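Mods, move this if it's the wrong board.
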Amino acid sequence: MDSDTFTFKVEPKHKPFTRRGILSMTSSVYDPLGLVSPVIVPAKKLLQDLCQQKIGWDDEIALEELTRWRSWISGLPKLSQVAIPRHLKPADFSEVRSCHLHHFADASQVAYGAVAYVRFVSANRQIHCSFLNAKLRLAHVKPMTIPRLELSATVLAVRIDRALREELELTIDKPVFWSDSTSVLQYIRNQGRRFCTFVANRLAVIRDGSQPTQWK
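Not the wrong board. Structure tokens:
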């Protein structure tokens, strides 16, 4: 069991220094669970910047972007050092008494995302936490405030929670959601105020999939 792990075997291949080549190389990193999402962000951001500059698919990129790309490629082989257990809890873990999903949402000007962990507590008070899933999105090219990006991250957290509870064959107690944004927490807890369309639409998703008391 302990040797049953998720690993990444990445062998950077020579691709043209173009948008098409960068997209091909970036897409070759197969990561359906989002284990290495933070590693992929710089490459996706580079593609977004090239698109903004209206660089053609087969046009060679400028020196500044080429430097960014080479730096990212040079670090890619380090993914082979990543090894994450597939099992959710150790084989010798005693009887499970409680099982909670913990979802963390966060954002920056570059990207926003959410990550989910499962937390087991055994009959003899052992505790074990395991990674389950992560989702990450680039921030829109049109500038947005951090609170709005944080709010978008909380929507991802709620959607991840819904998907996991449908798929996992576990008896799960009420999930817990975490955000370090006081603005977002106030949005969620304020059920009497009318918000602008952007905020209201996202709050509708959040409130449909969670209760204000679940947010920390």
